[in-house]
């Protein structure tokens, strides 16, 4: 054998061993990155690059790896992430939304985060770790009770503000901190899984009786929903009526064509005056919905959880049909037509140059974003209900 062929053979065997070794590295968690493409482009790929460096640092520290899912690089992202979540029962799954003002305004990003939250419902092995890439506290047009806002702030979020301005040392410190948090989350998930399984093996058969005794009352949950659902529907109908009135006002009072600054100011003041009663009604119905939503959503989610645990049969089917009717009714009330959704960019523009209309623009954007989130969450519960076998 020649020296050249010997070196070639050695190189081939080395590469094969490295490939085998790399593929054999255990995966500690699936990590799903949710982000705005425009944000990543604005930061010259900084969001994706940061997360890849986090994975590299994790592997350096632990020896195991993290499987990072990125929509640009993962095949069939829309279906793939949910398939992984459903199949990896008991495995650690961590969702990392890269929060920015643009993310909070993106309908696609908001829906994706709510979808992740729904998939993680009641499962300690699925956690959310928001990275606050850009502070959102000064944003206008976002209700502080918005479900997406709450997810961004309620979880173990980490501030990564001004990512592009970090020095190399500061960037490395941030990578180390995110890795530290991921290790804590993964350790907690593993301990929870271990504790649950050990407890089940120690208490034995008696635990079955205790668990059944401690189960929430299905009928009580059903009764609570029957009481609050009509109130939710009424508030949602009032909200929709107010939004439609705003749309009609905008349509019947168009801005002056090629008008002067004085004409625009007069138009804005007149429209703001006409819209004030509608604005008051809009704010009132939004406040009512917000106050009712958490109780209603928790009740609906618990109800679906309970139905999932029930044995198959007529009783479960009847409860599924009843809840399906409730979801359909509430979902219809919370659904906003496209022409209403198109008001948001228009009102942003108007509010930016016509100060009298700014309160209306901000309230409308906050309210529509809030209602759309509620509608998406009801749809997700309906999908969970539909997946239960009959």
From TrEMBL:
It comes from the Bacteria. GO terms for biological process: signal transduction. Pfam families: TIR_2. Residues 27-186 form the TIR domain. Transmembrane segments: none annotated. Residues 1-23 are annotated as: Disordered. This is ATPase, AAA superfamily. The lineage of its organism: Bacteria, Bacillati, Actinomycetota, Actinomycetes, Bifidobacteriales.
